[in-house]
Amino acid sequence: MSATAPAVPPASAGGTPPAPPPPGAPAGADTPRRRAQRRRRLVAALFLLPALLLLGALVVYPILFSIGRSLFDASGTRFVGADNYVEMFRDPSTLKAIRNTTIWVVITPAVLTGLGLILAVLTEKIRWATAFKLLMFMPMAISFLAAGIIFRITYEQDPERGVLNAVAVGVHDVFADRPAYPGARAREDAGETPVTKDADGSYGTAADLTPGSTVSLGIVGVPPKEVPADAEPAAPAPKAGDGVLAGTVHLDFVPGGGGEPGRIDSGERGLPGMTVQAVRDGKVVGETTTAADGSFRLTGLADGSYAVRLPASNFAEPYGGVSWLGPALVTPAIIAAYLWVWTGFAMVLIGAGLAAMPRDVLEAARMDGASEWQIFRSITVPLLAPVLTVVFVTQVINVMKVFDLVYIIAPGPVLQEANVLAVQMWLVSFGGGNNQGLGSAIGVLLLLLVVPAMIFNIRRFRRSQS
Q1: Confidence of residue 12 (pLDDT cuts 50, 70, 90)
Q2: Cβ atoms within 10 Å of 112's Cβ, excluding its own
Q3: Distances in Å between the alpha carbon of 375 and those of 118, 367, 371, 381, 383?
Q4: Lowest-confidence range among 64-73, 87-96, 130-139?
Q5: Is 388 exposed, middle or buried (0-12, 13-18, 19+ CB in 10 A)?
Q6: Cα 171 from Cα 186, distance rounded (Å)
Q7: What's the CA dihedral at 197, 200, 202, 208 to 10 degrees?
Q8: Cβ distance 270 to 234 under 8 Å?
Q9: CA 66 to CA 88: how far, in whole Å?
Q10: Do 248 and 293 contact (CB within 8 A), yes or no?
């Protein structure tokens, strides 16, 4: 019977077997192996210590301080317990911020993920995909401050400054007539044939004119730059024949002063393009527009009494575009600005997942006769689900703490309509409210809303690594 060979301990990572514990050493004794493990842990702790100190100073301490501060009043001297949290849900401004934050969370991540997916799939079909991705990703290089200023100007109500309203006004004017003289008005109760203003904004004479009569209508309130370039000196009312009412619409203003109101004086100019109507018994029976010298002729009139009217459309304010930053549209407008910044990020990230997708599955589906829509719905989207989840959850976290775009784009009068939790926290704490207890409570609420999304993201990342 041969002797049993002694057990050889496994070699360590360096190739040298660890020293066996001395014979008869008690369990847990300080051995060379244990000392080596302690040294490695100490070295690791020393390397991690700067990062841990920074993390504690910038993350852990502010969180703990905010939680503690939320339990005190505005001055920070009197303990109020949960009163700030109760007040938070009673404050109409905070409730509106919670509502708007909910709109952001429900709409923005879904739309952004969908846009990124569609653009990522479509860019696979074009040759210049790299240039397109670079162009779409470029807004990420712009700070939110700069992006907010860009869109604040883009959304300006004045078409001379706001690009969107310039386009809207241009398209509108193609299909609708522009008012001839916005803001002008007729000179009332002056001249031989005085006019009065009606309730609808039009100006008209008394209904005592008969065919063959002439009338002059003076207009004021037309800035010199608004007078058409083709306007000629005002001509006296032309002679009217049978069935005709004639007259002149003129700018009742003499440069340098002088002249008699309601009459055509030397130096006054006619107003071309003005709509003039003949009205009988409340109905329009004739209509024409003035010539370059302001003269007009209403023909084909039967015997009877008529009034000459300048309809309100001559003086209406021009179409000014859409109130993008008004109370109704300010939140969608800011969301659109956010999408402009982040769509490139979503597209590039989803495009990377699309590039890593096994192509044999797609080719097999095409050989089996599947349409592109069926492939997209049943193969592409399911295989991209992990990437889509990353984009979606990341954007949920981002939109919960959005601040810059809302604060910069929304004008002061409508800021409350666009308010979100991050902006409300700043307004309550530093923007005039000076109640850091309530502001800290809002910050804690925001943290509690973000934490579930972060936990979900961390767990999903760990599952993908296992």
Answers
A1: very low
A2: 25
A3: 14, 11, 6, 9, 11
A4: 130-139
A5: buried
A6: 30
A7: -70
A8: yes
A9: 15
A10: yes
428 contacts 421 by C-beta, under 8 angstroms = no
Q: Sketch out the chain's domains with CATH numbers.
A: 91-164+324-434 (1.10.3720.10), 185-314 (no CATH)
Of 281, 330, 272, nearest in space to 302 by CA: 281
- Reference 241, options 304, 306, 298, 309; nearest CA is 298
Q: What is the pTM of this model?
A: 0.75
CA distance 51 to 62: 16
d(CA 234, CA 269): 4
Q: Are 276 and 309 in contact (CB under 8 A)?
A: yes
Q: What are phi and psi of 452, to 5 degrees?
A: -60, -40
Rounded mean pLDDT of the chain?
86
C-beta pairs of 82-89 under 8 Å, 24+ apart in sequence: 84/437, 84/438, 84/440, 84/441, 85/441, 85/445, 87/438, 87/441, 88/438, 88/441, 88/442, 88/445
3-state secondary structure of 195: strand
User: Quick one: 46 exposed, middle or buried, by C-beta within 10 A (0-12, 13-18, 19+)?
Assistant: exposed
B/e letters for 199-214, b = 16+ CB within 10 Å, e = fewer, are eeebbbbeeebebebb
Distance CA 63, CA 355 (A): 40
CA separation, residue 235 to residues 184, 187, 190, 377, 419 (Å):
20, 18, 18, 73, 59
CA 458 to each of CA 40, 59, 60, 462, 464: distance values in angstroms, whole numbers, following the listed order: 27, 17, 18, 6, 10
Query: Following CA atoms 112, 117, 122, 128 in sequence, which dihedral angle do they give, to the nearest 10 degrees?
Result: 70
Query: What are the two backbone dihedrals, phi and then psi, of residue 404, each rounded to the nearest 5 degrees?
Result: -55, -55
CB-based burial of residue 67 (10 Å sphere; 0-12 exposed, 13-18 middle, 19+ buried)? middle
Residue reference for tokens 């800011």: 334
Long-range contacts of 200-203 (CB under 8 A, 24+ apart): 200/312, 201/312, 201/315, 201/316, 202/309, 202/310, 202/311, 202/312, 203/309, 203/310
What CA dihedral angle connects 88, 90, 96 and 99, to 10 degrees?
80
- What is the enclosing helix (H) or strand (E) of 215? strand 214-220
User: Which residue is associated with the tokens 């329009």?
Assistant: 284
CA distance 399 to 108: 8
pLDDT tens column, 171-223:
888 887 778 888 888 888 777 778 888 888 899 988 888 888 888 888 888 88
Residue 97: closest CA among 444, 448, 442, 447: 442
CA 391, distance to chain mean position in Å, is: 21
